[in-house]
C-alpha cells in the first residue's frame, strides 16, 4: 500500500529529531507529529549560483571659468550586488519510526534566494515523499 503525503519541515534538524507537519488530504484535520528519523542512505546534489559584487568607479571632471579656473573632480562608486540562488536537491531514503515502520523515499528541493543589500531571504522547500508500509 502506497500512501502519498506532503511533509513540510517546521524546524531544522536537531540531531536525528525533526518536527514535521503531516497533511492527510483524505481527512479534514491536520495532525502534527514528532518523528524520529534515521537516514540509511543520503545522496545530495548541490546546484548553486553564487553571488558576486561588481564595483565600478566613475570619475567626472567639470571645469568652469570665472576670473580663474576651478576644476572639480567628482568620484562616484557604484556597487552592484547580484542575487544569489542556491538549489539543494536531496535524494535520500529515510526510515521513520512511527506507530508502524514505514520507508520513505523522497526528493527534497530547497531554493534559497538571498538579496544582501535588502537583507531579504526567502526559503522555499518542496518535499515529495512516497510512504510504503511494512506488513
UniProtKB/TrEMBL annotation:
<protein>
    <recommendedName>
        <fullName>T-cell receptor beta chain ANA 11</fullName>
    </recommendedName>
</protein>
<keyword id="KW-0732">Signal</keyword>
<feature type="signal peptide">
    <location>
        <begin position="1"/>
        <end position="15"/>
    </location>
</feature>
Amino acid at each position: 500500500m502506497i500512501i502519498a503525503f506532503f511533509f513540510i519541515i517546521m524546524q531544522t534538524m536537531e540531531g536525528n529529531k525533526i518536527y514535521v507537519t503531516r497533511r492527510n488530504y483524505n481527512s479534514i484535520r491536520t495532525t502534527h507529529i514528532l518523528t524520529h528519523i534515521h537516514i540509511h542512505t543520503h545522496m545530495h546534489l548541490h546546484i548553486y549560483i553564487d553571488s558576486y559584487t561588481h564595483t565600478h568607479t566613475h570619475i567626472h571632471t567639470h571645469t568652469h571659468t570665472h576670473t580663474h579656473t576651478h576644476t572639480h573632480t567628482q568620484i562616484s562608486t557604484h556597487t552592484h550586488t547580484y542575487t544569489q540562488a542556491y538549489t539543494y536537491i536531496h535524494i535520500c531514503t529515510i526510515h521513520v519510526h512511527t506507530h508502524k515502520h514505514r520507508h520513505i523515499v523522497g526528493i527534497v528541493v530547497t531554493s534559497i534566494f538571498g538579496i544582501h543589500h535588502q537583507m531579504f531571504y526567502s526559503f522555499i522547500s518542496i518535499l515529495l515523499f512516497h510512504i510504503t508500509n511494512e506488513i
